[in-house]
């Protein structure tokens, strides 16, 4: 079926559904680079999301689900499919005793503020991680010795075809290093329950501030990026390998290996996705030649 046909079905099925066409993905990804998606659909509720996924699945329409776009790069040639953008209806956080229940679209920074307000400890390590809590669960995001699997009680999941809902624990999600079973199933996180613990509000706030200072002093937070570009190779640190290979500061077009932290590729201004990908390939080749280590991307490359 044509994109116009899909658009017509979705508008008939869902009241006030937001649909955009030929959408520049530089507006929706933290790299601020990349081509356009043929169409973007923004469901605002679980029921709307289930309908969207069901329609797209039944029509065998190429699509992908996008949260805050903090770990994604779309090639300059664009994405000839439909982006299902998690809408503002999934942006909420509420306290239930010593747990926080979060919509998958909630930013990590917002969840951190809610934890401080509720005097709940355990989320401090994640407070500065960019992106949404749904994406953090999908990737089992981590920092400063902690990972989302350490605090995830359960996740509310919608199947890829939109026909089923279920709950999964961290064990059931098979949460490993920057990986969950969702990478294989394509199922979608819509809500997350975090198991935290009562703590002293000032102590929690101070620890978050300390970690934020460390992050801001050691990471290029003032430039668009997707965070750590490469996964940590077993027995090594990607940033150190890149630095030891003499690549710190290397530039291709508007893309650069950060001079502050070599594990980051940044957009210094006007970088294209092709600039970023060319720089990625140079890094991978040089590190392999120098150290025999294959660097795998943490960033999802689309298109």
Automatic annotation (TrEMBL):
<keyword id="KW-0961">Cell wall biogenesis/degradation</keyword>
<keyword id="KW-0560">Oxidoreductase</keyword>
<dbReference type="GO" id="GO:0009252">
    <property type="term" value="P:peptidoglycan biosynthetic process"/>
</dbReference>
<dbReference type="InterPro" id="IPR036635">
    <property type="entry name" value="MurB_C_sf"/>
</dbReference>
<dbReference type="GO" id="GO:0071555">
    <property type="term" value="P:cell wall organization"/>
</dbReference>
<dbReference type="GO" id="GO:0005829">
    <property type="term" value="C:cytosol"/>
</dbReference>
<dbReference type="GO" id="GO:0051301">
    <property type="term" value="P:cell division"/>
</dbReference>
<keyword id="KW-0133">Cell shape</keyword>
<comment type="similarity">
    <text>Belongs to the MurB family.</text>
</comment>
<dbReference type="InterPro" id="IPR016167">
    <property type="entry name" value="FAD-bd_PCMH_sub1"/>
</dbReference>
<keyword id="KW-0285">Flavoprotein</keyword>
<feature type="active site">
    <location>
        <position position="298"/>
    </location>
</feature>
<keyword id="KW-0132">Cell division</keyword>
<dbReference type="InterPro" id="IPR011601">
    <property type="entry name" value="MurB_C"/>
</dbReference>
<feature type="active site">
    <location>
        <position position="178"/>
    </location>
</feature>
<dbReference type="InterPro" id="IPR003170">
    <property type="entry name" value="MurB"/>
</dbReference>
<keyword id="KW-0274">FAD</keyword>
<protein>
    <recommendedName>
        <fullName>UDP-N-acetylenolpyruvoylglucosamine reductase</fullName>
        <ecNumber>1.3.1.98</ecNumber>
    </recommendedName>
</protein>
<comment type="pathway">
    <text>Cell wall biogenesis; peptidoglycan biosynthesis.</text>
</comment>
<keyword id="KW-0131">Cell cycle</keyword>
<comment type="function">
    <text>Cell wall formation.</text>
</comment>
<feature type="domain" description="FAD-binding PCMH-type">
    <location>
        <begin position="33"/>
        <end position="199"/>
    </location>
</feature>
<dbReference type="InterPro" id="IPR036318">
    <property type="entry name" value="FAD-bd_PCMH-like_sf"/>
</dbReference>
<keyword id="KW-0573">Peptidoglycan synthesis</keyword>
<keyword id="KW-0963">Cytoplasm</keyword>
<dbReference type="Pfam" id="PF02873">
    <property type="entry name" value="MurB_C"/>
</dbReference>
<feature type="active site" description="Proton donor">
    <location>
        <position position="228"/>
    </location>
</feature>
<dbReference type="InterPro" id="IPR006094">
    <property type="entry name" value="Oxid_FAD_bind_N"/>
</dbReference>
<dbReference type="InterPro" id="IPR016169">
    <property type="entry name" value="FAD-bd_PCMH_sub2"/>
</dbReference>
<dbReference type="GO" id="GO:0008360">
    <property type="term" value="P:regulation of cell shape"/>
</dbReference>
<dbReference type="GO" id="GO:0008762">
    <property type="term" value="F:UDP-N-acetylmuramate dehydrogenase activity"/>
</dbReference>
<keyword id="KW-0521">NADP</keyword>
<dbReference type="InterPro" id="IPR016166">
    <property type="entry name" value="FAD-bd_PCMH"/>
</dbReference>
<dbReference type="GO" id="GO:0071949">
    <property type="term" value="F:FAD binding"/>
</dbReference>
<dbReference type="Pfam" id="PF01565">
    <property type="entry name" value="FAD_binding_4"/>
</dbReference>
